Amino acid sequence: MLPDTLERDSARHRLRKIPAAFRKEYKDILHEVGSLIAEYSLIEQGDRVMVAVSGGKDSHALLHILLDLQAKAPIDFSVVAYTLDQKQQGFDASSLIAYYEEIGVEYVLGERDTYSIVTEKIPAGQTFCSLCSRLRRGILYDEAQRLKANKIALGHHANDALETLLMNLFYSGKLAAMPPRLISDDGRNVVIRPLLRVTEDALAALAEQLNFPILPCNLCNNQEGLQRARIKQLIAEEQKRNPNLLHSARGAMANVKPSHLWDLSLCTARDAE
Questions:
Q1: Within a domain: 108
Q2: pLDDT tens for residues 55-86?
């Protein structure tokens, strides 16, 4: 899916250039994304991909990478950037819109007042993240239908996947992470996560190199759930002892041994074979 050179410009977009000193790292990122897309058929001929761009480093990186791959891939697919204004105080998308205009991507700025709903429903002192995410997800599903996008691309990365796996294991009593490809419960949407093999550090470095216009998440004043904060700290501490932690973890999520788990439905399925 990737050519030998990184110099071929997109005929449709004016992406910011990768600095020479960062080209090897960027090529590694492209390889990880391209291989995941190919293995899980995340993007196929004729797809229209709606990229959910919050304005953070991860979604910025996702948009840049998909536009770059669009120019290099042997298939044709279209990309539309979608940003949701949730009406929180201080939200200003002007720098993001200017960036969209700069690179020449099709974009849509949606508006829904989820901020009022979240602040009304969640008691003071509790985090907004869970309810906010559910509301935003429903809006993204509806907007993808309206924009005739058959794929929704999210910017979750390798760290997110491992954190979610451990959160579910420790606090929810289930083994579940983030799949590269997911069909929504109502069957209307296909959600893809092309960055799941890329680390957060690699995306942060790319964002710094290309000077993306980062929008702070002030919807919840950067609230961080205590449980997730502990998981992040646990991973960070373990990475000091095992630098290959994320690589090993992503391999484990693709190497499940159902016979070594306790799920009775899996046992029943095996017995029926």
A1: yes
A2: 999 999 999 999 999 999 999 999 999 999 98
Where is average pLDDT lowest: 15-19, 34-38, 48-52, 261-265? Answer: 261-265
179 domain residue, yes or no: yes
Other beta carbons within 10 Å of 117: 16
Q: Is 16 left (phi over 0), alpha (psi -120 to 50) or beta?
A: beta
pLDDT at 227: 82
Report the number of distinct structural domains present in the chain. 1
CATH at residue 41: 3.40.50.620
- Model's pTM, two decimal places? 0.89
User: Domain containing 176: what range?
Assistant: 20-272
- Backbone conformation region of residue 42, classed left if phi is above 0, alpha if psi is from -120 to 50, else beta: alpha
Specify if 15 maps to a domain. no
Instruction: Confirm if 135 and 33 have CB atoms less than 8 A apart.
Output: no
Report the alpha-carbon distance of residue 27 to residue 18 in Å, rounded. Answer: 10
For residue range 4-26, list pLDDT tens digits in order.
333 333 446 899 999 999 999 99
Cβ neighbourhood burial of 262 (10 Å; 0-12, 13-18, 19+): exposed
**H or E element in which residue 153 lies:** strand 151-153
Q: Who's near 170: CB < 8 A, 6+ residues apart? A: 227, 231
